[in-house]
Amino acid sequence: MNDAFTASGIVSAAFWLTSLLTIAAAIMVVTLHDIFKAAVFLALSFVGVAVIFFLLNAEFVGVVQILVYVGAVSILIAFSIMMISDVSHGSQPNRGRYVAVTVSALVLAAIAVVAYNTNWTLNSSLEDPNAIAGLTGQFLEEEYASGDGRIVDLYAGDTTTAPSEWALQRAQTGVLADSTPTIGGLLVREFVLPFETIGLVIVASLIGGLALMRGRRNEPEARGGG
Amino acid sequence: MTVQDLWLLSPEIAMTGVAIAIVFADFFISNKRTLAYLAVGLLALPLLFSLNIWFGVVGDTTATSGLFGSIVADRFALFFHFLLLGITATVIIGSVQYIERLKEFEGEFIALVLLSVTGMLLLVSARELISIYVALELTALPAAALAAFRRDNLSVEAGLKFIILSAVASAVLLYGIVFIYGYTGTTNLAAILVRLNDLPVDSSVPFGSYGVLFAVVMIVAGFAFKMAVVPWQMWVPDVYQGSPTPVAAFLSTASKASAFAVVIRIMYTSFGSVDLQQDWSALFAVLAAASMVFGNLLALSQTNLKRLLGYSTIAHAGYMLVGVAAVAANTSSGSAIAGPQGTMYYLAGYAFTNLAVFFAIIAISNRTGSNEISSLNGLGKRSPLLGVLLTVGVISLLGIPPTVGFMSKAVVFSAAVNSGLLWLAVIGVVNSVVSAFYYLRIVRAIYFEEPKDDSRITADVPVLFATSVAVVGVALFGAVPWLILRLAEKSLELLLA
Fold first, then answer.
1. ipTM of this predicted complex?
2. Residues of A in contact with B135 (CB under 8 A)
3. Could you read off the pLDDT of A179-214 as tens digits, one per residue?
4. Is there a domain that residue A101 lies in?
5. By CB distance 3.0 to 4.6 Å, which of A15, A40, A152, B425 could disulfide with B413?
């Protein structure tokens, strides 16, 4: 049977196409002199990353990627560029670019060697349910073994009632079919601390931004002793 | 989230409250000196909550881990809580004069310091990699704003360099976290250890697997930025020179202490098995040697005091890493925890020493308007008191007995010898001798050079107070080292158990 016509064949074809497009767009971002064009290519590479998230069944992360990065960050960059004159002249050619290319290539090579030589444990080879729950991103209390050895959360944290319909379905397909509720649960449970801390980071950036944008009057003397 | 979780988080929550309260109090308090003292007074709140957890007065005293294991308020974390709160109080008192001269946004300056400290308190308590990462960002972002606070060219350059390099270092750290998560399937430090013990080990590769090797190298490289050690040391002199001096003092003590704390915690919790300890001991030994040599050699030719202290702080980070490299698993004689214990003692002693030096320099440069070493010429005549305070600080940096600088070097070097790292201890001692060249240049300027202008220098009371407190610490903890060593030993018992 021709692999290209099966579902996984289409998925992997889409993966390679998107990856090529994303990498090409990313290379354009760092080589183009016109920063406005660079910003447009940056948005394109963000879309490519979002598509890869969708292909990995991480639809929530994919949607967030489009909303936040393509929708907000790219627009913000475009507006910032519009505020600056002399856009068409672009940025100065980077004198350290050959060093940068060498360093990037070395890092890429290191990551490739490491990723290829590491014995990544597959879910199916694990016996500890907690480890599998970790690998699938599901830290909920009850696990249920599906027929093919994969373990999927069924109870969505509620141990008093029977497994829900969608959870049973997931157990049968063995795929992380619906990651959104899991992510939502994790954000207010296991990862509530970093989630709330991000709020403080935003407060700090607001206060810092305001303080640095203050008017030029009443400057303390810029003497050596701070 | 249970009430117990809230108790464990209470120092951090209180610290956040204090930071926000200062922003609001700024609206009503027109005397900014009062505002700064209010902030110092309010630091008693997080301190009381930390003391409460240490002595177990209110709340469950047996459970130290909470919030699904993402936070732990053990004695190791509390040791650093006390240290960080002490540094913060000293820094704010010493900055009173700087804050007054700002004329506006005084409350924001204090609030940014407090928010950064909130991040550090979280950083030393977090036991989960994503929490650690977010806490690290919370320490770095306000620090970058503070570095650029003076807004002249040097200060803006300092802020920009800090934030860009800190972002790159964060990316490197995240790469390490991703590899660890991909390999073990968890971000919880304790669970990582359990999983690494389960997974097959390839004994021909350090750390048993290329993935873990890469992850550890990346994580250490990411934290090297905050610790100010090679290979992420290049920002240090520029940022110290450009940022307001109180901010440089804050970065060189608090920021460094929290980064060392989290590195010790990650290494001993997640990679704490005997084989792994030997692997990362070698990594830290190399970094320690490189930092000591690099920092000391480049400090030799500096004429600007703040730049010189920047290079000196890189060298001192190297000495501290000697203690981290002297792992418990390799220790053949003496206390097994002497290495990390020595690093904790060094961090506390270095905090007192560096604060003394920085605040003495603030007091002097407020009058002379210069940070060059030549501006210290004849300080012994112009202000005998400041001359003595600065000299005590500098000889503690150099490591002459009976200061805390000597005792802490003695502790980490002997820990290195006991764990089979004789070569590293030798490099450390040679470096200490080399550092005498530039530290003694400062002392010579104070006592043996003729001043251009021999008007007297009178320091403002708060900054003099901060300097004196730090110098008393230098002398006290040098004379009675077991005060901190015992505390550090108690703190490490839980971590290494």
1. 0.89
2. 194, 197
3. 777 788 888 888 899 999 999 999 999 999 988 887
4. no
5. B425
